[in-house]
Amino acid sequence: MAKKQFKAESKKLLDLMINSIYTNREIFLRELISNGSDALDKLYYKALTSGDSGIKKNDFFIEIVPDKDLRTITIRDNGIGMTKDELETNLGTIAKSGSQIFKDDSALDASDTSSKDSPEAKAKKAIDIIGQFGVGFYSAFMVSDLVTVTSKSYSTDGKSSVNRWTSSGADGYSVEELPDSAFDMPSGTEIVLHLKEDTDGENFSTFLEDYTLRELVRKYSDYIRYPIKLGDDTLNTMEPIWKRQKSKVKPEDYNDYYKSKFGDYMDPVRVIRTSVEGVSSFTALMFIPGHTPFDYYSKDFEKGLTLYSSGVMIMERCPDLLPDYFNFVQGLVDSQDLSLNISRETLQQDRQLKNIAKNLEKKIKRELEDFLKNDREEYEKFFGNFGRQLKYGLYDDFGMHKDTLQDLVLFYSSTEKKLVTLAEYVERMKEDQKSIYYAAGESIDKIDLLPQTEYIKNKGYEILYLTDEVDEFVIQMVQDYKDKPFMSVLSEDMSQDETEEDKNRIAKAEEESKDLLEYIKESLSGKIAEVKLSPRLTGSAATLTNKGEISLEMEKVLKSMPMAESQAFQAERILELNPDHEVMSVMKDAYGDGTNDAGKEKVARYANLLYNQALLISGLPVENPVAFAQEINKLITDQK
Ligand code: ADP
């Protein structure tokens, strides 16, 4: 029997398959089953269009027969089959898209040492190429050293010839005609794979085990619409839950499916099922988990939805279907418009996939809004689990996702004593209130005690307390909500929001104590950028605020990070003093007209004490605790 050579590009692909380091060898089964399913689809269509009533969909099957003695797996389908010519053209050449890629690509040729690519780079390239146009039928060579394809093409009179295609890989293939008796189906294809010998690293024999085959079918081909048989068993469920009539699926069904498919012990808090018809038609079934996965905030966590193309699973976690800020969503997408050959490497270029992803993002957003509106208590729990991710999303990409996310985040309110949305805050704003007030700190209690928050609270304004490390960074990125700017009550900018009366009073007091304030600043040189008087310190003598972008709280967060560059950030500190506090009059007296050296020395010591107490109130460490303690002791003993 004459051996024929594969076309040049096909040979390269075959080489790749045979020597593949491709980790996913098991997908050969999915590929062959899916070819069988296509062949059944084609036959069904042909029978419908030619009016052949002898063809019944109920008879359609795909069968897997492992044989341990012969070390073979047979995959049979009673689909449309192939003629002798079709066997040659379909299995002797690879798809056009593939041949394009192989042109001029000597870098892939393992024996070509002139290539500058390292073996690893070549391997990577090989995976990319396999991914780019799908592995298809040739994937059989990832696991076998001999493949025969026996096929009988469908014809209305059932009299097509039976032909067998045989190849052991790179050295070519042959096609021969067989007697009719060699085939026991009216039409169809029977593929026999002779498995490679096991090696140290690879166990091909596992594909002869029933349980492996069962598992692979369930994993990749569960929803193929024709029965996939192993002995008397049908391995696939055939009807996907997301294709069943909505009214026929009970909430428990979704919950059970979610738990078994995604390995969770808890029911999801929301189930999103949606179908879209249009440029990209698809069905999606998504779940919002009821708790944070244990690895959620670690780098091991992989986001993504399972991707099906017409019921055939093509990727377990397709990351490009979900934006990072919705990465907690689990589920699947099934689309007839997606190529089976999509791969991790080609995802990003796929227009259909992009369309679907955009659509899903909107759906998830709407679902979360609905969740927030109609089930506040549960939403707050959800927010406790995944809210931080939504906040990261607001911060990411320079605040680009503001419109999507700003109405989904919650912050603690000083007046409501619970979590509120930005919309609720703005709704309650007073007529004369220009900004959305916030204060960042370690805990609600600590923020509540700050002198500045007390002042704003006494004026009857609501403050958002930000206790999550990311919060203030997020707020700074977002900048405003419904045209209302955010304003930290702990920053010096806050003085803009003071009343005219307060402003005038302070200006006058600062003028009167100009020299004293200047002297205090001098004596604290290097520690602070400014000294000011403030109307906002009701009970306290002194406090720290900041100037510019970096707040004291942000400085704390940045300093706690391991990166060297984040250590360099320092908030520009302003020491604010309370003009009405008794401490201030003591300082004034001591300073006098500025000519008394003993008095000035006292002022310098007091200034240092005030600075240190302001640090403590802000939750920052005092610079020299021992010196600070000694100063206090000195104050006490001076009383003698
Ligand atoms: P693809 O399925 O992406 O076209 P494959 O390499 O898997 O590429 O298959 C090449 C062609 O061989 C298919 O398009 C189909 O025409 C034919 N073919 C493969 N398997 C079968 C089968 N079981 N029955 C009928 N035709 C088949």
Can you tell me about this structure?
Strand 7 and strand 8 form a beta hairpin. Mean pLDDT is 87; it is low at 95-113. It is built from 21 helices and 22 strands. The chain has 640 residues and is of the alpha+beta class. It is 39% helix and 18% strand. It has an eight-stranded mixed beta sheet with strand order 5-4-3-6-2-1-7-8. A six-stranded mixed beta sheet has the order 15-14-17-16-19-18. The radius of gyration is 36 Å and the shape is elongated. The site of adenosine-5'-diphosphate (ADP) has 15 residues, from helix 2 and helix 3. Adenosine-5'-diphosphate binds next to helix 2 and helix 3.
Per-chain topology:
Elements: H1 8-18, H2 27-50, E1 62-67, E2 72-77, H3 84-92, H4 96-102, H5 119-133, H6 140-143, E3 144-152, E4 162-167, E5 173-178, E6 188-195, H7 210-220, E7 228-230, E8 233-234, H8 251-262, E9 270-276, E10 282-288, E11 305-309, E12 312-318, E13 330-335, H9 351-374, H10 376-399, H11 402-405, E14 411-413, E15 419-420, H12 422-428, E16 436-440, H13 444-449, H14 451-458, E17 464-466, H15 471-478, E18 480-481, E19 484-488, H16 500-512, H17 514-523, E20 530-533, E21 542-547, H18 552-559, E22 572-577, H19 582-591, H20 597-617, H21 625-638
Parallel strand pairs: 1-7, 11-13, 16-17, 16-19, 20-22
Antiparallel strand pairs: 1-2, 2-6, 3-4, 3-6, 4-5, 7-8, 9-10, 10-13, 11-12, 14-15, 14-17, 18-19, 21-22
Bound molecules: adenosine-5'-diphosphate.
